[in-house]
Amino acid sequence: MGNSGSAVKVCTDHQGGINWLSLSPDGQRLLTGSEDGTARLWSTADSQCHGHFQGHESYITFCHLENEAAFTCSADHTIRKWDVVTGQCLAIYRGHTSIVNRILVAKDYLFSGSYDRTARCWSVDKEKQIQEFRGHRNCVLTLAHYSSRDVLEEEEEEEEEEEKVSRDLLVTGSTDCTVKVWWVSSGRCYQTLLGHTGAVLCLILDAPNRELFSGSTDYTIRTWNIVTGEQLKVFKEHQGSVICLELVNRHLYSGSADRTVKCWFVDTGERIQTYKAHKHSVSTLKYHAGILFTGSGDACARAFNSRSGVLQKIFRGHKFIINCIQIHNELLYTASHDGTLRVWDIRGICKRNKRRPKKERSVQGRSSQKGSLARLFNNKVGCMIQQENGE
C-alpha cells in the first residue's frame, strides 16, 4: 500500500486555508494565496517566507508568480500585481463585478475569469483593461491562451483578415457547460464548443497538435480541434466530476471526484491505467520523472508509478484538502486548506523509479487550471461535487 512519509518542513505562517500555490519560472520562489486575504513568497532554497503581500479586502482565490512580479486575484473583485523584492503593490486591476477566480499571464497580457460571467484582458504594465469577453451565461472557471501562429497554416491565417492585428486567442470554460474561444484583439467569439452537460472545471491545451481537453462535472473529458471546433473524442469512464488534467507524451491524466486518476492514450482514446487508493476526490495532480503525484480531499498526497499504477508512497500530515502541489529539485510542495505549506523529500522515490521515459513533454504553462477545486468547495459547484461522494 506504499510507505508513509513525513514532511521535512511545515510552514504555518498563513492564518487561513491556502487556495493556490505557484512556482516561478526560474524555480527560485513559490507563491501562496490564502483565505486570510494575503499572499506569501517562499524561497525554494530554504523554504522560508521572504515576502508577505497584504492589501486585498477578501480571500485570495488564485495566484501566479513570474520571476519579477507576483499576481493575485480575490473575492474582492480585484487583481493585484506585486513586486517580489519589495512586496509593494504595483497595480490594482478593477472592473470585475464579482469574485475573480482565475488569472493567466501570457506575453504582455493578463487574463482573468470571474463569477460575473465575463473574462477580461488587461495590460500587465499599464493597469488598463484592454478587452472584455462577454457571452457566457454563468461563471467563468478556467482559462487557457494560445496564438493562431501555433496552430494555423499560412493559408488559414489569410482567411482571418480582421484579426491580423493580433493572433492571440483566449479559451474559457464555464459553469454554463460550454467552452468558448475568443479573439483577444476584438473580443469576438471565434468558437463555442458544445457537448458538455455539466460545468467545465478544467482545460488543458496542446497547441502543436491543435487539441484542447476539457473536464467537466458531467463525468467526461472531451477533446476538441481548436481550429475547427470539432469534438474529437469523449472519455467516459469516470464516475464523478473531472477536476484536474495533466498531459505528458500523448498520455492524459485525469483526477476525479470518483476518487481515482485515470491515464488515457490520447491518440486512441484508450484508458490504460487507473490509480486508486484515494479516500476522497482527487483535487490536484502532477507528473514528474515517471511518477504521478496526487493531492486529495482526504488530506493526503500520494506517489504512484505512472506505468504500473502501483502506489509508492503516501504523504500524511495535512488536516484538510490539498488544493495544489508543485515539484522542484526533487522536493514536493503541498498546499492545503488547513493553512499549511508542507515540503517533502522525494529523492528516494525518484531513485527507485527506474523506468523513466527518455523524452518527457509535459503540456503546461498555457492553462490556468491543472489543479484543485480550491474555492469551488465553498460554492455551489463544490457542494455538488461533495454530494457525489455521499457527504
UniProtKB/TrEMBL annotation:
Arranged from A to Z, the UniProt key words for this protein are: Repeat, WD repeat
> Entry's SMART domains?
WD40
PROSITE patterns, A to Z: WD_REPEATS_1, WD_REPEATS_2, WD_REPEATS_REGION
Cell cycle in keyword set? no
Q: Which domain of life is it from?
A: Eukaryota
Keyword Repeat in record: yes
The record, for Pfam families, names:
WD40
Looking up InterPro entries in the UniProt record yields: Quino_amine_DH_bsu (IPR011044), WD40/YVTN_repeat-like_dom_sf (IPR015943), WD40_PAC1 (IPR020472), WD40_repeat_CS (IPR019775), WD40_repeat_dom_sf (IPR036322), WD40_rpt (IPR001680), WDR86-like (IPR044715)
Repeat region (WD), residues: 11-43, 93-132, 169-192, 193-234, 235-274, 315-347
Q: Which SUPFAM superfamilies match?
A: WD40 repeat-like, YVTN repeat-like/Quinoprotein amine dehydrogenase
- What PANTHER family does this protein map onto? PTHR44489, WD REPEAT DOMAIN 86
Q: Please give the name of this protein.
A: WDR86 protein
The UniProt gene name for this protein comes to Wdr86
